[in-house]
Amino acid sequence: MEEARVEPEIKLEVEDTEQHGIQQEVKAIKIQAEAFEISPNVVVGKDESQILDFGAVRVGEPKENTITIKNDGKYPIKYNFTIGIDRRRKKQTREIFTVEPEQDELKPMEEKTIVVRFLSQREVKVQASTQTPDMVLNILEQGSSLSVIKHFLKLASEKVEEAQAQAEKGITLDVDDLEASATSESLMLSYVSVEKDKDRADRMLVTPWFKFLWETYRTVLEILRNNCKLEALYAMTAQRAFQFCLQYKRVTEFRRLCEILRNHLANLNKYREIGRASCRERV
Question: How many structural domains is the chain composed of?
């Protein structure tokens, strides 16, 4: 797919199916979409060899190398480094390598030089490997799924806070399950109860937004469960969901959240074993 910008227009027509002779205006809806590429130009090493070669370094003496990134695209991009991919060597890698700055943004046509510093207090030998690299450079467009999901979580939390502010006082939810649909019996009981009109109105205002926030956490966890590049965002969302259950004493949602995370972990281990088995068969 090539870079392109399109602005199609669709029409919304409403038909009077009951033949009352009511004419509805045709609504024109404009759609804007753009396909673009991320165009970073990355130069690794001072001699442009694309290898961070520190050579032989004395114990206790630092040595620096550079990575240069230039954004040749038309939109801002972000970058970050993942240090220590191999879990067995992750601690050692983080001890001997530092990156400054480890994450940043680049505007269109902007260029930045990143300094990678090597310093070891004992004798070590680091060999380049494409299978288990010691350092990975991740480049994302600024309007990436990471930014979209964070914005989604932020808006959902703000809506709950706004609803609570409108209710003028703290509302304790008496709904046992936020995913349960309201039945006709529960609706009838709510209107014949002795609850004050003001309290009922406040509860009707706040409860839907609590349900929306809970569904937001669930949806985000499902979206991120198989994306290894967004593990940090997955962990942050899970922590916020636990905080939600703790703050509002949501026992049912806490149990459901634990079950969701258990299923994700079980599926992750299951498919990891399948992948290893298929690799052994190919060998």
Answer: 3
* ∠ Cα 21 25 29 (to 5°): 150
Backbone φ and ψ for 263, nearest 5 degrees, come out as -65, -40
How distant, in Å, are the alpha carbons of 61, 70, 107 from that of 116? Answer: 14, 17, 22
The CATH number for 127's domain is 2.60.40.10
| Domain match, 268 and 165 both | yes
Residues 6+ apart with CB under 8 A from 90: 83, 84
pLDDT at 276: 47
Same domain flag for 151 and 263:
yes
pLDDT at 190 over 60: no
Helix intervals (H) in the chain: 90-96, 145-166, 184-192, 197-224, 231-247, 251-282
- The answer on 222 and 186 residing in a single domain is yes
Cβ–Cβ under 8 Å, residues 85 and 137: no
Direct distance between the N- and C-terminal alpha carbons of the chain, in angstroms, rounded to an integer:
35
Q: Which two tokens stand for residue 93?
A: 């890698």
Task: Give dist(CA 180, CA 205) in Å, integer.
Answer: 17
pLDDT, tens digit (0-9, with 9 covering 90-100), for 224-234: 888 777 788 89
Tokens 């609706």 found at: 187
User: What is the pTM for the complete model shown?
Assistant: 0.47
Q: What is the DSSP letter of 229?
A: G
Residue linked to tokens 């990678």: 116
**Tens digit of pLDDT for each residue in 79-103?**
888 876 666 677 778 888 888 888 8
